[in-house]
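Write out the 3D structure for:
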Amino acid sequence: MAGHQKEKVVPDEVHQNQILRELYLKELRTQKLYTQYHVNPLRKVHTITRKPMSWHDNMEEPADDKFLNLIHHAAQEPRKKYSETQTESQEIGWFSEPLINPERDDRRLNHFKVYTDISLYKAKLWSLGEDDRHK
């Protein structure tokens, strides 16, 4: 079934200019010019070695305490940086201390392997490769 075929209307130059002007004004409204830059505290810093014979690298410069504090804070582990978890994945290992005191003398919690004479005999027999388990 052949439907109605619309003829393509070629927009004139004034209409094209108006569309371009609207696009240009929309871009100007959404653009923001950044003039102040800073280091991302969440990214690890890779140090680059200096050239040993360059005169400008060998000059003594005062240390920037604010920058050093920012770098040291970024290098810390999340438990030291934040008081509570930031993501769902951090909740798994956030509290890593054991809930109870791990006493080795408490027989209720520690079930150590106990060998008797017969179990030592069978363990030695099986370690030698003799297979009489199904007899």
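The longest helix spans residues 13-30.
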